[in-house]
Design brief:
Two copies of one chain form a homodimer. Chain A has 135 residues and is α+β, with helices and mostly antiparallel strands. The first copy, chain A, has one domain (13-134): Phosphoribosyl-AMP cyclohydrolase (Ubiquitin-like (UB roll)). Chain A has helices at residues 44-53, 125-134; strands at residues 24-30, 36-42, 57-60, 65-68, 77-85, 90-97, 110-116. In chain A, the strands form two sheets. Chain A has a four-stranded mixed beta sheet with strand order 2-1-6-5, with helices on one face. The termini of chain A are far apart. Strand 5 (77-85) of chain A pairs antiparallel with strand 7 of chain B.
Chain lengths: 135, 135
């Protein structure tokens, strides 16, 4: 198994495929609910600092500097897992989010629905969730 | 509420912020489990076709053409919801995935763990899941 205290990436940043801005695309989701919180970008320095510290560190494209998310707001993201996709151009981070991920005060940056189809919730687990809410 | 048979986006593609390649970044996840399946890109044509048909349609950067995912493999992705993020540069799609999302045969393109911290599963819902597995 993977070392839970691993401080070095088993795949070096050089092997990742970067976007046209020379950065790695990162999708960050809540480690319990899998809710997608945000999409941001990492440079090599940001990636290595994230792996070393266990705190999500991005590169701010607007401020053009390393961005330890939470340093200003206190809304840190603690790394639970980092996974790279099949063509090594996108990183998926599962995190424990402190407070809200979005600067607007929403938990997730994705709060503006464009299309929403109605569908029957077929997951029988929701019966248990309803029961759980009652007890 | 949103029209479940909406065939036109309430926000036109022109209002989205595109990446340096002139495309919209798209995160696609399973609508029931929230598992992230893949990250891909859309042109305006791909986005509008997705909204109109309800079938995820990307732009293939390698083949440089419109890509109706599933047309070759049968592994279509049926749109359940489309959500744009706070700065309008990333689309989140919840879909019903037929077969596997990844061309490698994995359900998700994210199957290579780089870092994985051990953590106690604190969600009491798992008690119910265990019960459900038994009954």
């Amino acid at each position: 198994g993977l070392d839970p205290y691993l401080a070095e990436s088993p795949i070096p940043f050089e092997e990742f495929k970067l976007n046209s801005d020379g950065m790695l695309t990162v999708v960050t989701q809540d480690y319990k609910t899998n809710e997608v919180l945000m999409v941001a970008y990492m440079t090599r320095e940001a990636y290595e600092q994230t792996v070393e510290t266990g705190i999500m560190t991005y590169y701010s494209r607007s401020r053009q500097e390393l961005w330890v998310k939470g340093d200003t707001s206190g809304h840190y993201q603690y790394v639970k897992s980092l996974t790279i996709d099949c063509d090594k151009d996108t990183l998926l981070a599962k995190v424990r989010q402190v407070g809200n991920a979005c600067h607007t005060g929403h938990y997730s940056c994705f709060f503006t629905d464009l299309v929403k189809k109605e569908y029957k919730e077929e997951n029988p687990m929701h019966v248990f969730e309803d029961v759980y809410d009652v007890i």
